[in-house]
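Sample 1 of the test manifest.
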Amino acid sequence: EVQLLESGGGLKQPGGSLRLSCAASGFTFSTYAMTWVRQAPGKGLEWVSSISVSGGSTYYADSVKGRFTISRDNSKNTLYLQMNSLRAEDTAVYYCAKDRITTGGTDMDVWGKGTTVTVSS
Amino acid sequence: EIVMTQSPATLSVSPGERATLSCRASQSVRSNLAWYQQKPGQAPRLLMYGASTRATDIPARFSGSGSGTEYNLTISSLQSEDFAIYYCQHYSNWPLTFGGGTKVEIK
C-alpha cells in the first residue's frame, strides 16, 4: 500500500524552528518529486514547497522562501521540511504529497494524513 | 503568480442532482489543472488531472472540462459521499496555486 506518514509537528513560539518528516512506503520514493502543502485552520490549501527526484531542484512559495528548506533522503525514503523563523501565520496542518509523475511540478496523487504545526506564544 | 478563483463558494444540491463547479485562472494554464476532494478531517484526494482525466478509482460520475482559463468539474448525480469541499490547482508554472474551494452541501 502506498503510504505517506508525516511527523514532527507541535507547538512552537514565534521565531522558533521545527523539522517535519514524511516517511514514504509502498512506492519507489527515489523516482518521484515530492511536495509539501499546508492548510491553516478553516482555510484552503496552500502549496508550500516541492523538490525534484535528486533534490537538486527545489521550489518555494514566496510566503516561506528564505525561512523553510525542503530536502529528501532517498536512502531513507524520507522527505523533510526544515522550518525556521516561524510565524503565527505558519500555523497549519502540513501535508506531505507525492507528485503524480516523476518530473514533478504537477498534481499530487498520494497524500499523508498531515501533521499539525501551531506557532503561538 | 496565477490566481485561481472558484465559484460558487458554496453549492447546495440535493442527492441525485447534478453539480457543476467552476474554476477560473488569471491566465491560461493550458489544461494543467487538477481537482481535489476534501472531507472534514481528511487529506485531499486527487480526482482529476489534465483538466479532464479521472485519477485512479474515481467514479465515472465525476467529469472535468475546460481549457485556457476556464474549467469545470461536474458531478452527474450526487451521492451522499460526494458532499465535501472541492479545490482546483494549476501546475502550469511555479508557484503552484490552489483555488479557494467550493463547498458542496446537502440541500
